[in-house]
Amino acid sequence: MAQKIGVYLSSKDNLPASYVEAARQVGHLIGSTGRTLVYGGARKGLMEVLAQSVKASGGRVYGMVPEIIEQRGLVSDAVDVTFRCVDLSDRKQMMNRESDVLVALPGGIGTLDEVFTVMANTVIGICRQPLVFYNVDGCWDAVLAALDNLFAQGLVSGQPADYYSVATSIDELRALL
Hints:
- By secondary structure, this protein is of the alpha/beta class.
- It has a single domain, classed as Rossmann fold (3-Layer(aba) Sandwich).
- It is built from 7 helices and 7 strands, in the order βαβαβαβαβαβαβα.
């Protein structure tokens, strides 16, 4: 069983209720099974929902906190261990290093950057980390279709399963972890 679960996700507020509930459920899964969350450390949006849910369920929270988040006073109170980093690239490296498996909940450009870095590292053999897209209400459908197209054109070696898994429910995610 993976002990440290890295989660990439949105820091935005006012997102669909299904996204908020998914973050809550993933937090409960991590915390109630004695695992540790590794995430971006901010107290905003889905990130805060996730971290508070982990804490409420008895888990530990590692926050990878870029200087700008600290300067803006946006570090979550749920963080047990703070890893200070310079910027988002540094944070991404630290998250990947500290995580046994990585999960992509609904997110934006930052989340895309993070998951593509994990897959690129697999392509060139830097490391091979399990990556799971948690496809809540089809949030990742377009990205997964684009990836399927790249594989179909022969632009990416192997099969999608060589790079990532997809879960569409908390039970599927639990089984993959």
